[in-house]
């Protein structure tokens, strides 16, 4: 157990998307990093699973900046697919980079993975999966939007 946990979201297994009430993810926490590879970070988020002995253990730990980067990456992806139906392949093969997002003096390219030999089929399935997850992601996006608006002056 991380003695440096500051924030916790217990009973996460009850709201874990389509795995709700069947999930083995038991809680989310924020605090001082536990894993050695994250020790140079000040804060990390942990996802806790229940092991075979019924004890909770860290399943994954991510530094806070990586969570923000994932949120930025996901949000930009969602924006692309909201309008992608206008493109025959859901992307422009001549211009697979959706956007280069400036972060820390560099850029994070958000790009369609044209190295995937099955990209034309996989992107169709991915787009359909995003549509199928609409109710789960929509609710979470509305909550996130409300919270981000409250943080306007952070």
Radius of gyration: 18 Å
Give the tally of β-strands: 6
Q: Low-confidence segments, ≥5 residues, pLDDT <50?
A: none
Order of helices and strands: EEEEHEEHH
The count of helical stretches stands at 3
Biggest sheet features: 4 strands, antiparallel
The neighbouring-strand order within the major sheet is 1-2-3-4
Beta fraction:
25-35%
Query: Could you say which overall geometry the principal axes of the C-alpha atoms support?
Result: globular
Assign a percent range to the helix content: 25-40%
Which secondary-structure class do the elements indicate?
Answer: alpha+beta
Distance between the termini: 31 Å
Mean pLDDT value: 93
Describe the fold and architecture.
- The chain is 33% helix and 27% strand.
- It has helices at residues 64-83, 119-132, 134-150; strands at residues 5-10, 25-31, 44-50, 56-63, 97-103, 106-111.
- It has a 4-stranded antiparallel β-sheet. The chain has a two-stranded antiparallel ribbon with strand order 5-6.
- A hairpin with a 2-residue loop joins β5 (97-103) and β6 (106-111).
- It is globular.
- The model has no long low-confidence stretch (mean pLDDT 93).
Entry keywords:
two-stranded antiparallel ribbon, alpha+beta, 154 residues, single chain, 3 helices
Quick structural overview:
The chain is of the alpha+beta class and 154 residues long. Helix content is 33%, strand content 27%.
Topology:
Blueprint: E1 5-10, E2 25-31, E3 44-50, E4 56-63, H1 64-83, E5 97-103, E6 106-111, H2 119-132, H3 134-150
Antiparallel strand pairs: 1-2, 2-3, 3-4, 5-6
């Amino acid at each position: 157990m991380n003695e440096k946990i500051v924030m916790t979201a217990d009973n996460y297994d009850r709201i874990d998307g389509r795995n709700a009430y069947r999930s083995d993810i038991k809680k989310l926490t924020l605090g001082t990093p536990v894993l050695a590879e994250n020790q140079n970070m000040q804060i990390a988020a942990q996802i806790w699973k229940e092991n075979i002995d019924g004890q909770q253990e860290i399943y994954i730990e991510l530094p806070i900046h990586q969570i923000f980067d994932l949120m930025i990456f996901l949000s930009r992806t969602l924006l692309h697919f909201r309008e992608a139906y206008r493109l025959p392949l859901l992307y422009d093969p001549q211009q697979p980079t959706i956007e280069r997002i400036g972060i820390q003096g560099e850029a994070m390219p958000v790009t369609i993975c044209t190295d995937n030999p099955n990209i034309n089929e996989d992107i169709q399935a991915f787009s359909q999966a995003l549509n199928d997850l609409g109710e789960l992601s929509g609710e979470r996006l509305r909550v996130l939007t409300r919270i981000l608006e409250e943080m306007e002056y952070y």
